[in-house]
Amino acid sequence: xxxxxxxxxxxxxxxxxxxxxxxxxxxxxxxxxxxxxxxxxxxxxxxxxxxxxxxxxxxxxxxxxxxxxxxxxxxxxxxxxxxxxxxxxxxxxxxxxxxxxxxxxxxxxxxxxxxxxxxxxxxxxxxxxxxxxxxxxxxxxxxxxxxxxxxxxxxxxxxxxxxxxxxxxxxxxxxxxxxxxxxxxxxxxxxxxxxx
Length: 196
Hints:
The protein is mainly beta. The chain is built from 1 helix and 14 strands, in the order αββββββββββββββ.
């Protein structure tokens, strides 16, 4: 009886959490279409603003589109692109999904196993405190810089080889004003303006 109760209680607590995670996580499907140089993109359960970008390793951003609907579907025709390496990036709030795409004369190559998922850091200020949180799916280095309104560096910190970061910085010694927080996570940069 006791074991049955514990199992029932576990199910009662775990099931709502699993259902909540399923509801909140955006659905992202990126697939090639047959032997054509086309990619199908389907997004569901989007909350807030979502951005899609098609980037070329050589030319930078080729396409950028902001999505405000909860669902989105599109076929990207890449026939006119030169042979080379590209990536399709879907940014949904705190998550960024990168899908590498390779285009050759004969077709398009898209391997779902090459897809990368990144999590954006969360930066919050409360009074004199700056809180930085990051949950990543791989070991990474986080570099934090705080610059004043003139762009002068007033503080920097580096945390190496971490998967999870939760740090609090005391800003009480800085004068009142506007500051820019720059966080570099691997090869990605995140910028946030704060007021103290």
